[in-house]
Amino acid sequence: QVQLAESGGGSVEAGGSLKLSCVASGHIYSSYYMAWFCQAAGNRREGIAAIDTNERTSYAASVKGRFTISRDDAKNTLYLAMKSLKPEDTAMYYCAAEPPGELPRDFPLMVAAYTSWGKGTPVTVSS
Protein backbone atom coordinates (compact mmCIF):
# COMPACT_ATOMS: atom_id res chain seq x y z
CA GLN A 1 0.00 0.00 0.00
CA VAL A 2 0.97 3.60 -0.50
CA GLN A 3 1.17 5.95 2.48
CA LEU A 4 -0.65 9.28 2.14
CA ALA A 5 -0.31 12.55 4.07
CA GLU A 6 -2.65 15.50 3.46
CA SER A 7 -1.94 19.12 4.25
CA GLY A 8 -3.21 22.59 3.40
CA GLY A 9 -6.50 22.64 5.26
CA GLY A 10 -7.56 25.62 7.31
CA SER A 11 -10.24 28.19 8.00
CA VAL A 12 -11.44 30.59 5.32
CA GLU A 13 -14.40 32.85 4.73
CA ALA A 14 -17.05 32.01 2.20
CA GLY A 15 -15.85 32.82 -1.29
CA GLY A 16 -12.24 32.14 -0.38
CA SER A 17 -9.77 29.61 -1.74
CA LEU A 18 -7.55 26.84 -0.43
CA LYS A 19 -5.20 24.34 -2.02
CA LEU A 20 -4.82 20.93 -0.45
CA SER A 21 -1.83 18.66 -1.01
CA CYS A 22 -1.38 14.95 -0.52
CA VAL A 23 2.10 13.46 -0.57
CA ALA A 24 2.39 9.78 -1.37
CA SER A 25 5.19 7.47 -0.35
CA GLY A 26 5.98 3.80 -0.20
CA HIS A 27 5.01 2.66 -3.66
CA ILE A 28 4.83 3.57 -7.35
CA TYR A 29 2.56 6.59 -7.04
CA SER A 30 2.39 7.35 -10.77
CA SER A 31 0.54 4.09 -11.45
CA TYR A 32 -2.21 4.75 -8.92
CA TYR A 33 -5.70 6.13 -9.29
CA MET A 34 -6.08 9.05 -6.85
CA ALA A 35 -9.04 10.85 -5.37
CA TRP A 36 -10.22 13.36 -2.80
CA PHE A 37 -13.08 12.67 -0.43
CA CYS A 38 -14.74 14.79 2.21
CA GLN A 39 -16.66 13.96 5.35
CA ALA A 40 -18.67 16.51 7.26
CA ALA A 41 -19.54 15.91 10.90
CA GLY A 42 -22.30 13.33 11.16
CA ASN A 43 -22.25 12.56 7.45
CA ARG A 44 -20.84 9.73 5.41
CA ARG A 45 -17.61 10.13 3.47
CA GLU A 46 -18.20 11.11 -0.14
CA GLY A 47 -16.07 11.39 -3.21
CA ILE A 48 -15.58 14.84 -4.70
CA ALA A 49 -12.77 14.55 -7.25
CA ALA A 50 -10.70 11.80 -8.84
CA ILE A 51 -7.87 11.57 -11.35
CA ASP A 52 -6.52 8.56 -13.20
CA THR A 53 -3.05 7.79 -14.48
CA ASN A 54 -3.82 9.58 -17.77
CA GLU A 55 -4.98 12.65 -15.82
CA ARG A 56 -8.62 12.14 -16.72
CA THR A 57 -10.71 13.69 -13.99
CA SER A 58 -14.11 13.15 -12.40
CA TYR A 59 -15.97 15.54 -10.13
CA ALA A 60 -19.01 15.46 -7.91
CA ALA A 61 -21.71 17.85 -9.05
CA SER A 62 -21.39 19.83 -5.83
CA VAL A 63 -17.82 20.91 -6.61
CA LYS A 64 -17.64 20.89 -10.41
CA GLY A 65 -16.41 24.23 -11.66
CA ARG A 66 -15.09 25.24 -8.24
CA PHE A 67 -12.55 22.52 -7.40
CA THR A 68 -9.68 21.27 -9.55
CA ILE A 69 -7.80 18.03 -8.94
CA SER A 70 -4.29 17.61 -10.30
CA ARG A 71 -1.26 15.44 -9.77
CA ASP A 72 2.49 15.92 -10.03
CA ASP A 73 3.96 12.46 -10.39
CA ALA A 74 7.52 13.78 -10.18
CA LYS A 75 6.74 15.04 -6.69
CA ASN A 76 4.44 12.14 -5.75
CA THR A 77 1.85 14.76 -4.89
CA LEU A 78 -1.88 15.10 -5.44
CA TYR A 79 -3.55 18.52 -5.25
CA LEU A 80 -7.04 19.89 -4.79
CA ALA A 81 -7.44 23.58 -5.64
CA MET A 82 -10.66 24.87 -4.12
CA LYS A 83 -12.22 28.24 -4.94
CA SER A 84 -15.54 29.94 -4.26
CA LEU A 85 -15.73 27.97 -1.04
CA LYS A 86 -19.09 27.69 0.69
CA PRO A 87 -19.96 26.94 4.33
CA GLU A 88 -21.30 23.58 3.20
CA ASP A 89 -17.77 22.65 2.03
CA THR A 90 -16.75 22.49 5.70
CA ALA A 91 -15.47 18.95 6.28
CA MET A 92 -12.45 16.76 6.81
CA TYR A 93 -10.77 16.15 3.46
CA TYR A 94 -9.05 12.87 2.71
CA CYS A 95 -6.97 11.68 -0.19
CA ALA A 96 -7.15 8.10 -1.35
CA ALA A 97 -5.16 5.88 -3.69
CA GLU A 98 -5.68 2.63 -5.48
CA PRO A 99 -3.69 0.55 -7.99
CA PRO A 100 -5.28 0.24 -11.44
CA GLY A 101 -8.44 -1.86 -11.43
CA GLU A 102 -12.07 -1.99 -12.42
CA LEU A 103 -13.43 -0.34 -9.29
CA PRO A 104 -11.48 2.94 -9.38
CA ARG A 105 -11.75 3.02 -13.17
CA ASP A 106 -15.52 2.61 -13.28
CA PHE A 107 -16.45 4.16 -9.93
CA PRO A 108 -13.76 6.80 -9.28
CA LEU A 109 -15.75 8.60 -6.57
CA MET A 110 -16.78 5.54 -4.61
CA VAL A 111 -15.28 5.05 -1.15
CA ALA A 112 -15.06 1.29 -1.59
CA ALA A 113 -12.89 1.68 -4.70
CA TYR A 114 -9.88 2.76 -2.61
CA THR A 115 -7.83 0.91 -0.03
CA SER A 116 -5.17 3.49 0.90
CA TRP A 117 -6.23 6.57 2.83
CA GLY A 118 -4.60 9.53 4.50
CA LYS A 119 -5.59 10.81 7.93
CA GLY A 120 -7.27 13.91 6.56
CA THR A 121 -6.93 17.67 6.75
CA PRO A 122 -9.75 19.89 8.06
CA VAL A 123 -11.40 22.67 6.08
CA THR A 124 -13.72 25.18 7.74
CA VAL A 125 -15.60 27.76 5.71
CA SER A 126 -17.34 30.52 7.63
CA SER A 127 -20.22 32.60 6.33
Number of helices in the DSSP assignment:
1
Q: What gross morphology would you assign?
A: globular
The main sheet comes to: 7 strands, mixed
**Amino- and carboxy-terminal Cα gap:** 39 Å
Radius of gyration: 13 Å
Quaternary organisation of the protein chains:
single chain
Question: What can be said about this structure in brief?
Answer:
This protein is mainly beta and 127 residues long.
Overview of the structural elements:
The protein is mainly β and 127 residues long. The protein has one helix and eleven strands. Strands 2, 4, 5, 6, 9, 10 and 11 form a seven-stranded mixed β-sheet that branches. It has a four-stranded antiparallel β-sheet with strand order 1-3-8-7, with no helix packed on it. The mean pLDDT is 95.
Q: What descriptive keywords fit this protein?
A:
11 strands; four-stranded antiparallel β-sheet; single chain; seven-stranded mixed β-sheet; 127 residues; 1 helix; mainly beta
Topology:
Elements: E1 3-7, E2 10-13, E3 18-25, E4 33-39, E5 46-51, E6 57-59, E7 67-72, E8 77-82, E9 91-98, H1 102-106, E10 116-117, E11 121-126
Parallel strand pairs: 2-11
Antiparallel strand pairs: 1-3, 3-8, 4-5, 4-9, 5-6, 7-8, 9-10, 9-11
